[in-house]
Amino acid sequence: MLQDDSPDSEMNIAREFWKTIFNGYDINKPNKVLPYDYRETVEIVGRSGFGGTLCSSIEDEELVCSMLTLVQEHNVSMFQLFLTCYHLFIYKLTDDNDVLIDSITANRYRPEIEYAIGMFLSFFPYRLAIDPNMSFIDLLSKVHGNCVNILQHSKLPLPEILNIQYSGNPRMDRTSSTVFFFETDTYKIDEVVLEDAVCKFLPDADRPAHISKFDLLFSVKHDVSDTGQPQRFFLLWNYSTDLFTEKTISKMDKQFRHLLNILFSKSSMFDINQQPLYELSLFSC
């Protein structure tokens, strides 16, 4: 299928799609946008790889309920809602409205493999051009459309996508400086017993994070309790200690949670349906 050169083949249609995604994108920009503490080490190939982790939670029932209601009303997924928020966050943090974030998709682009058993997860870049005059709901709709299109063209292997993005440039080791991951935790398993061995699961915050493959990995876990307890979200920041200090990541976490409150709290004065994004600020927290 990869060798099919006909213009209307699935792979060539996917190649043309990814060409439009990266058209006009500055491939040297990803190393400049994040608020690095040690900017001089960004371009160093042989970084130590050491990482740090910071974890927080969103347990305000009113805020969580507001977000759950929003995804139902607009027929989007919670992944798409948080991806929209993270795109907006990076835009506000860096003043760069052409945002590229890597993420992981289920990659079940055909109905016949939707319920197939197996690992179909794939890594894809999500590029979003943000118009400061648009509303948050318009931005959410745009992200939803992007996600649908990327899923439809996700059959193209990542190395080919990177080759399209970099057009032969030797910097093909990554696409963006930040990665977003979302998961839903619908049940609780504290331990697994295998004959005489007992394997226990560590909470995310307790897992050692000695290695950081990316500059910044932002993960959201949606805790959907089956015990009658309110739903909540866990935010996990895994960062390269060659590039960031814990103080900077802690500030980013505070700003992101502040952004969620501005967007979804009932007490917020910001109108996500009408007000333009340029009126939203992270820096009043």
Oligomer: single chain
Summarize the biggest pleated sheet.
6 strands, mixed
Query: Roughly how many Å apart are the termini?
Result: 52 Å
CATH fold name, please? Answer: Chloramphenicol Acetyltransferase
Beta-strand share of residues: 15-25%
Instruction: List segments where confidence is low: pLDDT < 50 over at least 5 consecutive residues.
Output: none
How would you describe the shape? globular
Q: How would you state the average pLDDT, rounded?
A: 81
Percentage of helical residues?
25-40%
Q: Rounded to an integer, what's the Rg over CA atoms?
A: 20 Å
Structural class: alpha/beta
Topology summary:
Blueprint: H1 10-22, E1 51-58, H2 61-73, H3 78-94, E2 98-105, E3 122-129, H4 136-152, H5 158-166, E4 178-185, E5 191-194, E6 197-200, E7 216-223, E8 232-240, H6 246-264
Helix pairs in contact: 1-5, 3-4
What would you note in describing this structure?
31% of the residues lie in helices and 20% in strands. It has 285 residues and is α/β, with parallel strands linked by helices. It has a single domain (49-279), classed as 2-Layer Sandwich (Chloramphenicol Acetyltransferase), CATH 3.30.559. The strands form two sheets. It has a six-stranded mixed sheet with strand order 1-8-7-4-2-3, covered by helices on one side. A two-stranded antiparallel ribbon has the order 5-6. A hairpin with an 8-residue loop joins strand 7 and strand 8 (232-240). Helix 1 packs across helix 5 (158-166) and helix 3 (78-94) packs across helix 4. The N and C termini lie far apart (52 Å). The relative contact order is 0.21. The mean pLDDT is 81.
